[in-house]
């Protein structure tokens, strides 16, 4: 019996195209998305059936629990950015399909969502283009400032303001740099820390850390392995002014001191072999107004990893891998049908030597999180791809808690150099030697990871 839907694909495509022709962004198809989620906490009233399940979209030809492989990827080609499609078609990558998440509270940290709902409509831009609380012109007060975005600038502003959506985060991580032949070139382990002095919703004092209201973010990364890079670390201190570059400091063990680095050189690998730049962080690794354009170039359904990607079955949350020449190029990933993704293009304007001419970024309309990115070289050719997977850290009876609620965060990332064939795989793990443990909103993170003195201690450890 054929899989019947009330609205065909043509209906939703016409809706998205009509909005584009009118030059408007109004998320949702059957009803406004933001108001529907605020009223019920779910997305079901905003979208027709064929956008709420993979069965509906493919008329039953792909079902929840199935894998997308080279044998059936043509059915969902329109739901993938070109690089993942190429990986699946020709390099053995596969994606497991899970149910579309309909509960708003499972799509970001709980307190962030509560603040988003509470503070809706209170944000604006000041004369310098900084996001502010409209009531008093001070920095933003918490949650997503633009939960019902009207343009690409608002989408990127929210992403740049709060990457991980926690007031403070520490991610223990491992990274494997693989060559075109699938052989590991480098195996790194280390930590990434973030802390927001403003727009705080979980840590006290809130919404501002007194004396630091002029800062947007403290962010650091350090490496433990391999041995030749052990102790290497970097610290970014972001000004709240969205047009100013962060101050960048680094500790290199052989020099035994902290040095300040040029802050606009954000298109170079952090360490050899990595297909990752500082600019790539969360697809918004540079201050908002060092890029421009922010033009919406597409809308429609998409496949992305938003649930089922935490692996509590492994004591350190290690993920499985598959595909590529050595069967280890890609993460085992669960994806779901995202009813509506918003595609935004931006161009670097404060980087005269940037190897990138533009980036194209996919945002999930439900929570405005980044679910894909492709950058283009100066000739306009695809250059690098960045796709990740998130999850609520809850699976059956297993839970990793963030205070009163299960932790929500990223699980793994695949960064691909389209032109060389190199792939970098990153994953968030539970812990590293030295009692460095993944988690959120810990007051000790600042002194452990986010000062120049912390860099020196990490380098000497």
Largest sheet: 16 strands, mixed
Number of strands: 26
Q: What is the number of helical segments per DSSP (H or I, 4+ residues)? A: 8
- Derived structural class: alpha+beta
Our count of domains comes out at 1
Mean pLDDT: 92
- What percent strand? 25-35%
Task: Tell me roughly what share of residues is in helical segments.
Answer: 10-25%
InterPro entries: DUF1329 (IPR010752)
Question: Which descriptors apply to this entry?
Answer:
461 residues; alpha+beta; 26 strands; 15% helix; 34% strand; globular; DUF1329
Structure, explained:
The protein is an alpha+beta fold. The protein has one domain (1-110, 117-190, 285-437). Helices cover 15% and strands 34% of the residues. A hairpin with a 7-residue loop joins strand 14 (333-348) and strand 15 (356-364). It is globular.
Question: Which helices and strands appear, and what pairs or packs with what?
Answer:
Elements: H1 9-22, H2 33-40, H3 54-58, E1 67-68, H4 82-90, E2 95-97, H5 110-118, E3 123-125, E4 131-133, H6 152-161, E5 168-178, E6 184-195, E7 215-225, E8 233-239, E9 247-252, E10 257-261, E11 291-304, E12 321-322, E13 330-331, E14 333-348, E15 356-364, E16 370-377, E17 382-392, E18 394-395, E19 398-399, E20 401-402, E21 405-406, E22 408-417, E23 423-429, E24 431-432, E25 436-437, E26 439-440, H7 445-449, H8 452-460
Parallel strand pairs: 2-14
Antiparallel strand pairs: 1-2, 3-4, 5-6, 5-23, 5-26, 6-7, 7-8, 8-9, 9-10, 11-14, 12-13, 14-15, 15-16, 16-17, 17-22, 18-19, 20-21, 22-23, 24-25
